[in-house]
Amino acid sequence: MKSMVPLGLIVATFALTSSRFFDSAKVFRVKPQNEKQVNFLKYLARIKQLDFWHPDSAPHIVTQMQVDFHVSAHQSRSVQTLMEKNEIQYEILLHNLQEEIEKQFDGKRNFTGRHSYTKYNDWDKIAAWTARIAKIYPKLVSRIQIGNTFEKQPMYLLKVGKENVRKKAIFMDCGIHAREWISPAFCQWFVKQAASTYGKDKIMTHLLDSLNFYVLPVFNIDGYVWSWTQDRMWRKNRSKNSTTNCIGTDLNRNFAAAWGTTGFISDDPCDETYYGPAPESEDETKAVATFIRNHLSSIKAYLTFHAYSQMLMFPYGYTFHKAPNHNELTEVAKAAVEALSSLYGTKYEYGPSATVAYPTSGSSVDWAYDQGIKYSFIFELRDEGRYGFLLPESKIKSTCKETMLAVKSIANYILSYAS
Ligand SMILES: [Zn+2]
Fold it and tell me: Which residues form the signal peptide (predicted)?
């Protein structure tokens, strides 16, 4: 029996359970035209509370970069005035963040307790789903626990592929950044599509016969839970820092890949891009890195899913030097992006992350590459900023369908060429 919950109640319930409220908070977009404007924006970030959506933090800003940031209701008027005084042209992407948060559920937030591939699922639903999907497809899907999060949540990984002793493998993770909800939605979609089209779709059947996919549906579980219950804009994990009351480390700065050296990383635990007290200091990073290290002989590709900005990138992020197989990575990315856009015409940029986006260190994709996984990619899924992290549920299906084509394209290449 379906339970009918009136929309007003749904909105009110979400507002009540979410301790951080974003009523009248705004998201601005600016494109600094010169160094003076870049410096002004960096100054603005120091004197006002700006939550950067793109790039990840203020030091990354350079001339002509598209910069999106969120400002609370009480600061947005003064931020606007300051930008006008300094002749910075801006666009308001979102006028009322709280409204967009509510709208991402398409007015029908799923309270019936049922998991759905075309809706955003909270962690409890996803955890239960990992057990269920392994039960439904026992010959294709199995569940492994690779560790526990800081808050002692079990980290479940799904192994997807036909039983076969010696196989190449592809490792995929979603949801390393908590607020990028479309990413875990894709990992769930992938597992379901792969398992349910085995024996029907020729390419998928061939892939699962010859490859294993290790899929981590939510990397940063504690942060994801927090983004559902307390703060929709949460990004980091939820570990405590010994020196301050500020919570969390950016797990995608916590890997041992030029850790803490380049790309405006932050040693301030209060920052959104805080790299942690040491490489792999975080339980979640440690669990993933340990699993990958233990399976290096089979893992040929590493794919990590983020949002937003529609990019497919590969190493390096920590240097502008080209990766040894740069030309090959460019070709693989190009083919994947072409496959992706063939469905709905969605445009993706591709290339090394330091140049396509901006320099970063301690990222999982650079670390995986330096472990010898020569096909390591980072996806930034939809959109380009109209909704940012608040992509409506109505766009989950099309986003997942097109992304699937890109992943199949990469997997096919791995099958044929990776040694
Ligand atoms: Zn991200």
Answer: 1-19
- Residue 111: its pLDDT value, please? 63
Quote the pLDDT of residue 110: 59
Element (H, E) at 290: helix 283-294
Residue with tokens 């097109």: 402
Predicted pLDDT at 109: 65
**379 CA distance to ligand 1 centroid (A)?**
9
Query: What's the 354 CA to ligand 1 centre distance in angstroms?
Result: 15
Please identify every stretch of the chain with a pLDDT value under 70, giving residue numbers as ranges. 1-19, 107-112, 165, 263-265
Q: How far apart are CA 105 and CA 94, in angstroms?
A: 16
Residue 287 CA, ligand 1 centroid: distance in Å: 19
- Put simply, whether the predicted model's pTM sits higher than 0.85 gets the answer yes
The reply to whether 380 belongs to the active site is yes
Could you say which of 100, 180, 282, 380 is catalytic?
380
Distance 331 CA to ligand 1 centre (A): 24
**Predicted pLDDT at 6:** 43
Residues 275/342, Cβ–Cβ less than 8 Å:
no
Instruction: Please count the other Cβ atoms lying within 10 Å of the Cβ belonging to residue 221.
Output: 27
Cα separations in angstroms, 38 against 45, 57, 68, 299, 418? 11, 13, 13, 41, 43
Tell me how far the alpha carbon of residue 180 lies from the centroid of ligand 1, in angstroms: 6
Runs of H (alpha helix) within 158-282: 182-197, 202-210, 221-229
Domains of the chain are: 24-95 (3.30.70.340), 123-417 (3.40.630.10)
pLDDT value at residue 242: 87
The amino acid present at 232, given as its one-letter code, is R
